[in-house]
Each structure stands twice: as C-alpha cells, then as structure tokens.
Amino acid sequence: MSDLIGCELPSPAVTTMLFDIFMKSVHWFMIVFHEPTLRAELEEIMRTGHVQQSKFSLLVLVMVILAIGAKYATKDDVQSCGCPDLDLASLQSNLMRKIEEKLLEVLDQDDIGSVQVCILLSSIYLYHRRPKRCFVVVGAAMKAAQALGLHRESTWGCIDPVEREVRRRVWWALFVCEACVIPLLLACSSLC
C-alpha cells in the first residue's frame, strides 16, 4: 500500500470509524459508489495491507472518504474507536496532501474510480471555500467520465447490474454538479 500512495491508512479502527461516519453523514446524498462492494474491498485492504496497482484509484477514493469522514467526526467518535489522542485536523490535512499529490496519477487511471475521486474531492473544495479548485476538478471529472463513456449508457453492453447502477449514479452526480453547482460558483465568485 505504501508503495502506491506513499503512506499507510490509519489504523483499522480509525479507518472503519471514519468510513462509517462518511456513510452516515455524506453518502446518503452523494451516492457515487456501492457501499457493500467498497466496504468489502476496504476490509480486504485492511486485513492484508496490500493493494493491487489496478486498484490505485480505489485506494485514493478511500483516502478521500476518510478525509471527509475526519471533517464530520467528533471527539466522541474518536473516543469510541479507542484512539483518544487522534488529531482529526492533522489526519485530514495529511490525507488531503497525499490525495492532491496523487491526483494526476488518479486521472491516468482508466476506471470509474478516477471520476468518483474527483466528484468527492470537488465537494471538499466546495465546502472549504476553494471554488477555483472545485471548478477545475469537476471539469476533470467530466472529461474522465466522458472518456469512459459514462454519458452513453447504450455503449456499455452487458455489465453487472451493480456496476450499471454505479455508473448511472456517478454520471448523474457529476451532471448535477456541473449543471447546478458550477453555475452557482461562477455567480458567487471571481472565477470569471
């Protein structure tokens, strides 16, 4: 894992806690992945400590989820996972630094994970008052999605129903962001 991203994930207890907080706080309105599938893959990563190169964007997606979870976590959450000295702000900052460091590599991946990373990362930038970064990352997500053909469902062929639904949700999350959020950003900021 550290060969791919240059660091380790937090302890399994912290990782699970932050993942669960993301699910409770954000996933319900930004459903861009299939929770049972991602949770199973994350558990395998935590159990073995290994990730295949082909799962690079998935690993960065997990890091984005953990960074968002750290934003929503409380002191009680930290206490309940048995890590009372955990500095959530520092953890979030370190995760964001690594995510941003690896973003171009994520965009090189030819998979839906690259689009998922960009959608969630753009939401972080939006809520942390970084409209220019949000704007650029959403644009990258849109181009990556188009390169994957997410906008042309008729070309997907016969794929797993879960994968089909994930692709639909990712495309529509991106569509909503592009159609609603970006114009709002342009109207409220000095992007122009």
How would you describe what is shown here?
- With 192 residues, this protein is mainly alpha-helical.
- It has 9 helices and no strands.
- 73% of the residues lie in helices and 0% in strands.
- The protein has one domain.
- The longest helix has 28 residues, at 161-188.
Task: Give a concise summary.
By secondary structure, this protein is an all-alpha fold. 73% of the residues lie in helices and 0% in strands.
Keywords:
192 residues, mainly alpha
How are the SSEs placed, and which strands pair?
Layout (H helix, E strand, L loop, with lengths): L1 H4 L6 H16 L7 H14 L7 H17 L2 H6 L7 H21 L3 H16 L3 H18 L12 H28 L4
Helix pairs in contact: 2-4, 4-6, 4-7, 6-7, 7-8, 7-9, 8-9
What's the Cα radius of gyration?
16 Å
| Strand percentage | under 5%
Total count of helical runs of at least 4 residues: 9
Distance between the termini: 40 Å
Our count of domains comes out at 1
- What class would the helix/strand composition place it in? mainly alpha
Mean pLDDT over the full residue set = 86
Order of helices and strands: HHHHHHHHH
Unreliable segments (pLDDT under 50, ≥5 consecutive)? Answer: none
Number of E strands: 0
Tell me the overall shape: globular
Largest sheet: none
The helix content, as a percent range, equals over 70%
